[in-house]
């Protein structure tokens, strides 16, 4: 009967979280939000996508995509639900989220529902992202709060976005980890410890390849 079909369809619908970032380097802030959202939203898998040429970081010194891809692989290897995608590493062109999602939708079948995971700081900027009106129809957005970057303005901003784009943007509170890649790069440059801010394998990768010095 029809109820049976609906139940079967629901069970077959795969729920995939897309975690985009520069990951220069990836750290426990990223990993904690991905895992918490995976559990809370019952996602089948989280796909980490290191940005190819992030449009908002064109004028900054970003490590090669190869290094960022390897570090993301190392950091996610112990979680059976985490995977890393090279989808943005292939071209030389600027990697816009809309292009990545379009490609992913083509790769995955109809029975996949995508959830785009970002930090609350990043979501506030979403209206400056390429083709935002189309983008918000392609998947749900889950914005994780980020310590140090929360403000009454931010709450209000997310509420406005929810209204404007019909609630496909949600906020989620995660255990606060005030870790950022910028701070980690800074610490390496100044010879300070980065222990316990990111997986040990990534820490050693950074030293082995002399990154951020
Ligand atoms: P950078 O300092 O170089 O900008 P970052 O730490 O912000 O690095 P990104 O690779 O830019 O890391 O982040 C990818 C996504 O993860 C962004 O949406 C960002 O908001 C989110 N994010 C990063 N760190 C945290 C954290 N500690 N808590 C919550 N969200 C985070
Ligand atoms: Mg950032």
TrEMBL record:
Keywords: ATP-binding, NAD, Nucleotide-binding, Nucleotidyltransferase, Pyridine nucleotide biosynthesis, Transferase. It comes from Geosporobacter subterraneus DSM 17957. Pathway: Cofactor biosynthesis; NAD(+) biosynthesis; deamido-NAD(+) from nicotinate D-ribonucleotide: step 1/1. Residues 18-187 form the Cytidyltransferase-like domain. One of its GO terms (biological process) is NAD+ biosynthetic process. Belongs to the NadD family. The gene is nadD. GO terms for molecular function: ATP binding; nicotinate-nucleotide adenylyltransferase activity. Its EC number is 2.7.7.18. Catalyzes the reversible adenylation of nicotinate mononucleotide (NaMN) to nicotinic acid adenine dinucleotide (NaAD). It comes from the Bacteria. It is an enzyme of class 2 (transferase). This is Probable nicotinate-nucleotide adenylyltransferase. It catalyses: nicotinate beta-D-ribonucleotide + ATP + H(+) = deamido-NAD(+) + diphosphate. HAMAP family: NaMN_adenylyltr.
């Amino acid at each position: 009967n029809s109820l049976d079909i609906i139940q079967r369809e629901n069970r077959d619908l795969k729920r995939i979280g897309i975690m985009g970032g520069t990951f220069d380097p990836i750290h426990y802030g990223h990993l904690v939000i991905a895992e918490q959202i995976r559990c809370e939203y019952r996602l089948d898998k989280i796909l980490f996508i290191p940005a190819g040429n992030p449009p908002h970081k064109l004028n900054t010194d970003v490590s090669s995509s190869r290094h960022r891809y390897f570090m993301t692989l190392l950091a996610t290897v112990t979680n059976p639900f985490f995977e890393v995608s090279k989808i943005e590493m292939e071209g030389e062109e600027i990697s816009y989220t809309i292009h990545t999602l379009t490609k992913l939708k083509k790769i995955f079948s109809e029975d996949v529902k995508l959830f785009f995971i970002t930090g609350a700081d990043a979501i506030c900027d979403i209206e400056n992202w390429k083709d935002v009106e189309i983008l918000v129809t392609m998947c749900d957005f889950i914005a994780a709060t980020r310590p140090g970057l929360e403000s009454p303005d931010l709450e209000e901003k997310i509420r406005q976005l929810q209204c404007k784009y019909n609630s496909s943007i949600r906020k989620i509170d995660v255990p606060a980890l005030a870790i950022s890649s910028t701070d980690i790069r800074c610490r390496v440059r100044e010879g300070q410890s980065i222990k316990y801010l990111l997986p040990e394998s990534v820490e050693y990768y950074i030293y082995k390849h002399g990154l951020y010095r």
